[in-house]
Design a protein that fits this description.
Structural class: alpha/beta
Radius of gyration: 17 Å
Number of domains: 1
Shape: globular
Number of helices: 9
CATH superfamily: Acetylglutamate kinase-like
Order of helices and strands: EHHEHHEEEHEEEHEEHHEHE
CATH class: Alpha Beta
CATH topology: Carbamate kinase
Strand content: 15-25%
Number of strands: 12
Strand order of the largest sheet: 3-6-2-1-9-11-12-10
CATH architecture: 3-Layer(aba) Sandwich
């Protein structure tokens, strides 16, 4: 039986101070790296693909330059390059911490091959990522800029990349580790919704629409929408949105014993409220 494939995202709000430009949470990154190693030791028969958000390195710059909406003027293109440099800087920090902890990460820069059509990701080099997984390496991706046939340039989120990759490299599980305890029923302190399906999302969409820090890719609502599309494409997959701030939560999620957060799946289970 082939190993299970797990997609893991380390959220930008978790690994950076999203309100303080270009400020990594280094101690948090080191702890998360250790927890990834521990989780893989407890569950050795899985393959892992890691992505991370742009946090205060990318989102503040992207908001400043309005990169998501399009890139046309010379000033826009300078902003496009500035965003790319900022997220690459964070990626280097994340890569160093993971590798130092013993995670055999293989960097796969999305903007080197990504192409979009009016904000939709339509092309990304998959073979290097597949090659890394086949040889027991851990691909490392991140939210990034991308050239766009319609807009000139735009922003692609880690969740968009996960959705695109799922067609060629279908995951068994997707773990979105952030600071929010899950998807709340209302903003900012509603109860955590235990499960969301395509059939129930409309009931909760208002509560998932908010983000309390700059997030050009749609905040929680955008994450949920991308993940709903993923599970509709891969019905056997499950997605868990949870907080990795409590010590050990990421290890438990990777080992399959975490029970907190919001699970997104293609069909309602018996316990899901209608």
């Amino acid at each position: 039986m082939p190993p299970k494939l797990v997609y893991l995202k380390l959220g930008g709000s978790l690994i950076t101070d999203k309100h303080d430009e270009r400020t990594p949470q280094r101690s948090t990154l080191r702890r998360l790296a250790r927890e990834i190693v521990a989780g893989m030791e407890q569950r050795p028969h899985i393959s892992l693909l890691i992505g991370h958000g742009a946090g205060s390195f990318g989102h503040i710059q992207a908001t400043r330059h309005n990169t998501l909406a399009g890139v046309r003027s010379a000033r826009d293109w300078h902003g496009f390059a500035t965003v790319a440099a900022a997220v690459a800087e964070l990626n280097g920090i994340v890569r160093t911490e993971l590798f130092s902890a013993g995670v055999p990460v293989f960097n796969a820069q999305p903007s080197a091959s990504a192409r979009c059509r009016d904000g939709k990701l339509v092309k990304l080099a998959v073979e290097p990522i597949k090659g890394a997984i086949d040889n027991d390496l851990t691909p490392l991706l991140h939210g990034d800029v991308a050239f766009d046939e319609t807009r000139g340039g735009t922003i692609i989120s880690t969740e968009m990349i996960f959705g695109f990759l799922s067609h060629s490299l279908p995951p068994d599980e997707v773990l979105l580790a952030g600071i929010a305890p899950g998807v709340r029923s209302s903003h900012p302190r509603g109860s955590v919704i235990p499960e969301i399906t395509p059939q129930t999302f409309a009931n909760y969409a208002g509560g998932a629409a908010f983000s309390d820090a700059p997030d050009v890719t749609g905040g929680m609502k955008g994450k949920v929408a991308e993940m709903l599309a993923l599970v509709q494409n891969i019905p056997a997959a499950t997605v868990r949105i949870f907080s990795a701030e409590p010590e050990g939560a990421l290890t438990r999620a990777l080992s399959g014993t975490e029970t907190t957060g919001t699970v997104i799946r293609a069909a309602r289970t018996e316990s899901t409220p209608v």
